Amino acid sequence: MAAGFNLSPTAIAAGFRLETFAEIGSTNALALQRAAAGEADKLWLVTDHQTGGRGRRGRPWVGQKGNLAATLLIRPTVEINAAAALGFVAALALRDALDVVLPRDRVAIAPDGGDLANGGRFTLKWPNDVLANGAKLSGILLETSGVGTSDVAVAIGIGVNVVDHPSGTPYPATDLKEIGSPCSAGELFFALSDAFVDNLRLWRDGRDLSAVRDKWLRSAAGIGSQVAVDLGGRIVRGVFETIDADCHLVVREPDGRAIRIAAGDVHFGAVASVRDQ
Fold this sequence. Notes:
The protein has seven helices and 14 strands. The chain has helices at residues 9-13, 27-36, 80-83, 86-101, 185-203, 210-218, 269-273; strands spanning 17-21, 43-47, 53-54, 60-61, 68-74, 122-125, 129-132, 135-145, 153-160, 226-230, 235-243, 249-252, 258-261, 265-268. A seven-stranded mixed β-sheet has the order 1-2-5-9-8-7-6, with helices on both faces. A five-stranded antiparallel β-sheet has the order 13-12-11-10-14. A two-stranded antiparallel ribbon has the order 3-4.
């Protein structure tokens, strides 16, 4: 068992539970195993040393000792497609938690000169990244099991670069230590467990995404800027206008057409302006 991880009183009162690990391969993989075995709702699996983490599209997520890897296993009474918005809920909760643990006198300035005014010190990069100083601080991965609405289980995996970050990544990365925060993985998780309660309530069991959408847009990175979205082989280029009622990305192409995108890798600024090779 890893020391230093605790749930907030608000999370405990809301029925959340916690298991911690000194080291683990993947918190998401274990959560899905537990789900298959009948594990109940609202279980956090947390470590500061994940050795086999993974990101979107099967990419490895490198987790150095001291970084945060946390997965929340929940069983929402919604269809799997509706559960996809939980990634936005997780991003909002993490952004709120970061605002608690980072010293208030620090101001984020994007290294590429981008505008962070809408999101303050931390911004949200569609669909599932949290940025600090314009660089990737965290990734969020949703994995599901079950069908219909009676046995759906969702593993919400959150990896945060607390003391170290990978180099040579397609998108610039950073960590909390680098930007001047002295907080530990345990301190960040405590704030995250607290913030998740309110943001999960905002989701209203998937009945209405408007509050989630509105709050997400207030912290969105890149609105009004040029983006390139990799759809797994096809690149869509244009201006990032908004996200729609289903939290899909809306890109206005040069010919004026609005394209709605459910999944893809987004790049901003100079990268978005490079023509396909």
